[in-house]
Amino acid sequence: MSVPSTHSAPSLYLPDTVSAIDARIAFLTAELLALRAKRNTFAPIQRLPNEIISLVIEQHASTAQEINRFDLHWSKIMLVCRRWFEIAMSQHSLWANIAILATRFTSHDMSRRQIERSGTVPLNVRATLLGESSDAAWFISFLPRLARLELGGTPECLESVVNMLDSAPPLLSLSALQISVLPGVQDVVNQDSPVRLPPSLLTEKLPNLRQISLDAAELHWSSIGNLQSLKMSGCFNLDHDGPVGVDDILHIPRRCPTLRELLWHAEGVELLPAVTTAPVELPQLEYIELQAMSAPINAILEHVRLPNTASMMVAAFPLATASDVVDVLAALDSHIRVRDNLESDLPSLHAIHVHARVRRSEQPAGAPAPIMLMLVLSESPETSKRIGRDPISDNIKSRHDGEREPSFVAFSTQPTTTGIHSADSICAQFVGMAQAERITHLNAKHAQGLGQSSWRVLLELLPALQTISMHFQERGELGSDLALLGAMQGPDCPVAGKKIRTLSVGFSPWMFLGMQKDRAWLADPLVALEAYVRERRDAFNSGVEGAMPLETLVLDDSLDLLLHEPAPPALARLGKLMDGMGVLTRIGGSPRPSCATLGGNSSSMSSAAPPLHLPNSLSRFDARIKFLSDELAALRTQRNTLLPISKLPTEILCLIIELHAHPPETWLFDRQWSKIMLVCRRWHQIVMTRPSLWTNISLGSRRIFRGTESEMPRRQVVLSGAAPLTVRATLCQQTYDAEWIASFLPRLKVFELGGTVAAVQDIVDRLGIAPSLKFLSALHLSVEENSGPANDAIKLPNGLLGEKVPKLRYLSLSCTSFCWSSTLSSTLQVLQLISCSTEDAGSPLTVTNILTMLRQTPQLRSFTLHPNSRHTLAEATGGPVELALLEYLDIQEQHDAVAALMNNLRIPTTAALSLLPVLVTSGAQVADLLVPLGRHLRERGRLALTADAAAASNQMHALHVRAQRFKDPPTLMLLTLALSESADMPPSLRLDPSDTLFDADWDTQWRHDPWSASLTTQPNSPESVDEICTQFIAALQPETRSNSTETGCQVITHLNTRRAQLLSAGNWSTLLRLLPALRTVYLQFDEKENEESGDDLAPLIALRTSDPENGSGMRIRALRIAFAPGTYSAQQVDRSWIDEVVAELEGYVAMRRSAFDDAASPGTPLESLLLQDRLDLLLHDSHADLMQSIERLMDGMGVMERLGKVERDGVFPFGPQEGC
Questions:
Q1: Is 1169's pLDDT higher than 90?
Q2: Among residues 799, 828, 843, which one ends one of the domains?
Q3: 677 & 757 share domain
Q4: For a FRET experiment, which of 337, 611, 828, 1087 has its CA 20 to 30 Å from that of 637?
C-alpha cells in the first residue's frame, strides 16, 4: 500500500449511506489499532523509567486482585526481564497480601518470602488452619503488622490462634477480623463446640477493630462495640446461659452507632421476643442483611431506625405460619414507603431482579426440585455486588468520594410448590408491596427455577415494564428461560410482554470446553426467541392501536457462540425481522463482530476482514496513522450530516433547552444559559421564538435606565410575547423608565419591588390604576433604609389587594401603610407584614384591625407580623378567627398585643410558632402570654400521645436555649426558649417564606422546618431568667397534674444550650430542677473574649452539684460538648480555658462513676460522652492526663468519643503529640 503524501490534502472516499460509513469506520478503526500495536515494537518498553514500570506492575497486580486479593498469578509479569523482576521484588506493597495454609505437611516458605519482601507495610493475611503447625513462633512475629486477618479451618485450630491473639500485646493496626469454620470441615467436627473468643480479645487486644465477621463462634456480645461492619452467623452469647433474645441482638448495634454494614444469620433458630421499646438509631448504615425466621426479623426491623438510602436483604427460613411472608414484606414495604415519601430526590426503585436456583441436592425421589427464590428491588438494572458477599473477605472496588452505591431491597426464601407460600404467591405479594407503575426493568438472568405461571404473575403486575434481561446456559434449566419467552407470547399473554422496548439475551456454555464440542443446545433458545420477535413484528406491521415496536434486541455473546452453527442462519432471520422496527446488536468477544450492528444485511458477520499492509518504519507509520485519522474525522462529520441532531422534533428540543435554562440549583435570573443559542442557527431560532425562556427579568439599579444597558431587559419583555412575567426590580434612582415598566404590569406573575420610597410608590400607584392583574400570584414590596424621610411609608391604593388579584398567593409588605379593613384576596397563603401601619396616621393599629384582615384569608398557611415603632393596642373585638391551614406564625409585638392575638386565633396544633413579645424583662410580664401558648403546647402533646406510635414520636421533647447580650443597653439579654421534635437545633427559629418566592412550585410544595415553638424575651437579670424559664416550662405541664406532688416537667428529655453561655450557675440549677426527665444535654465552651461573656464552667458545676433527688444532673445518660476558640490564633497560644473545662469535666465524670459503682444503690450510668473537637484542641499534652483519666472513668460505664480532624473514628490518641 502506498503512503499518501503529507504535503497535499489526501483524497478521501466518503460514502453516502450510514451503513457504508459504519462499515468503513469499523475497518479503519481496526487498521489504526493494528498500526499502533506494530508501532509499539519500534519504541520498546525498556525506555520507560523505573517509576512508570513500577506503576504498571502495581496496576496489573491490583487488577488481578479485584476478585481475590491473595492471587499471585500477577507475579508472572516478573518473567518479562531481569529489570522487571528487580522492580517487582522491591515493591513492598505487592507482597502485603499473604495466604497461609497450615497443615502438618505444608511448608510456609512462600509466605515467609512474601513477609520479607513486604518490608514494614501493614499485612493482609488469610490463614487456613486444617492441622497442627510448628510455625507458631513465626506467626507471632508478624502479628503487630496485621491490618486484616481472615481465619478459617477447624474449631480446634481456630481456637488456638484466637488464644494466641489474646496472649499477644494489643494489635493496634488490626482493623478487620474474620473467623469462620470452613464448609469442607463441617462434617468432621463437632458442631456443638464452636470457637470461643476470650472477653478481653475485642475490648483490650484489638482497640482499633472496625470490621468483624464471625461464623459458629461463642463470645460475650457485650464486648462488641465501635464497629463499622459486623457479620454474625450462628454465634452464641456468653453473657448469660439462657436462650438468645432479640434484645441481645439489638444491644450490639446500639453500642455501634457508626455501623455501616450489619449481617446477621440465624436460620431456623427460635429467639426470645423483644422486651425493650427504645429504638436503635443507625444514621450511617448502608446495608443490613438478616437471615432468620420471620418473627425475629420483624422484631429487629421494628426497633432499628435506618437511613432512607440503606439497602436491605431479608431471608426468611423456614416459612412456618401463613403470615410469615406477609409480615416480612410489610416491614420492607414500610421502609420503601418512608424512602419514597421523605427522600423525593432519591432515584426510585425501578428495577426488579429475580433469582431462582434449583436445589437438586435436596430433591426427594419423585418430588419436584425445590428452589431458592430471591426478589430484589433496586435503583440500578444491574445486580448489586453487596448481595450475599462477606464484608471482610470479598474485595470490592472502593467508591469515589461523594458517590453512593445504588440501594436495593431484597427478600429471599424457599417457596413451597403450592399454597400461600408458592413461588407464584410470593412473587405477587412482593410486587404488590412495590409501586409497580415505577418498575421498568426486569432482570431474569439468574432465574432458571421459575415456571411459566410465575412469569405470567410477574408480567401481569408490571404494566410499565420496558426492559427484560434473560440468560440461556448449556445444560441449565432451559425450560424456565423458555417459559419466560412463552409467557410473553400468545393471544392471552400479559400486556407487558407486548410492550417491551428492550430485550437483552445472554448465552454461555456449561463449561468452556462445551463451546468447542457441541452447540446444538443453542437451537431451542434461538427458535423461541425468533418466534417472539416474529410475533412482535407482525403486531407492529398490522398497525393495531397500542402495538409497540421492539426497539432494541441485545445478544450478549461474550464467548462468540453465535458466530458458529447453528446460530448464523437464525441471526440472519432475526436481523430481517428487526430491520425497520428496531436495532439488533450482538456484543461479543471478537473485535469486529462485537462492534457491528446487525440489520437486514448480515454479510458483514461472515466476511473476512481485508488484509492490512503495515509499514516498516516510524515515519511511514506516523504518516499512515495521520492519514487514517483524517479520514475517520471526515467520515464522522459526513455521518453527522446524515443523522444530525436537527432531526429531533422542535418540541423535544424546546424541552431540552428549558431544562438547561432553568435547573433548580441556579439563580432564576441568570442568563448564562443563553450561550446555548450559539450551537447552530436552528437552536438560535428555537430559543428566540420560545416566550417562556425569557419571562424571568431582573431590573437592577443599573439595568433599567434609558440607554444601552437597558436593552437586554427590554428585549426580554419583547421576546416573552404574552407569557406571564417573573420580575425582580430594585429602583434606587430617579432615572428609571416608569412608562415602560407600566406597560408590562398586567402580565406580572411574580413581582418583587424594592428601592427608594418615592420610586416604589410611583410603581405601586401604577399598579393601582392597572385594569387587571389576573396573573399576579406573588407580590413583595420593600424599601431601602434611609431612602426617604423618617416614618415615610409606601401607601397602597384602595382595592389593589382585592378582586383585582384573584390568584394572589404570596404577599409581603415592608414599611407600608394601608387600610387593614379593606378587601383582601381570599386565596392568600403567605402573608408578611413588616413595619406596617394603618392608613390613618393618627389612629394606632389595634388587634381588632389584624383580626379583621385575617378573617378574609381562610387559606392562610404562614403569617408574619413585625411591628413598626408605634405600639399596637391590645383591644380585640369581633370574636376569634379560625385559620385551619396555618403552618407558621411569627409575631413580634408588645406582650399584651401578642397575648390578645393568641387568645383570638384558632390555629392547628401542628403550627410552628415564633413569638417575640417586645421588652418583656420579667416573668410577670409574660404570664398572660403563656396562658394561650401553654394551651397550644399541651393540646399538641395530648394529640400526639393519643395517636399512633409514629405520631407519638413527633411530640416536643427537646428544649433549646439561646442567650445573647444586647449592645445597647448591655444589661439586657435576648433569651430564646424553643421547643422542637428534634434534639438537634433547627436551622432557623424563624421560617423565611421569602426564600420560596421565586421557587417555580412554591405554592404547591410548601416546605418548613420541623414543628417547633419559640418564645424570645429580654430579661434584665439572672432572677428574671429564672422566672421566665419557670413559667415557660410550667406551661408545658398537663392540666391533670396541677394538683400532683410530682415536680418538674416530665416531657422534656433533651436540652440544647450550645448558644447559652451567658446563663449563670443559678440559672443552670433552675433548669436542672425543672427538667427531671433529662436524658441528653448539649453544651458548648468558647474562649472568653471579655468579662461579660458569662461563667463557662457554670453548666458543669450545676451538673455536679445538682440535687440527686429533684435535679437531673446525676441522671442524664448522654452529654455532648463542643469546643470552639475565640480566634484561630488563640488555639496556638493560650489553652488555659480548655484546662479549666477539662478539669471540671473530669470531676463530674468521676462523680458519675462513683455513683455508678455504688453497690448499695447504683446510680444511672453516663452512657455516652461525645466531645466535638473540630480543631483538635483536646490533643495537646497539657490536658492529656485528664483526658486519659476521663477515658478510664468511662470504661465499663459508657462510650466516650471525640470528633476531630485527627482519628475521626473516635479512637483517642491522648498522649504527647508532636507539633502541638
A1: yes
A2: 843
A3: no
A4: 611
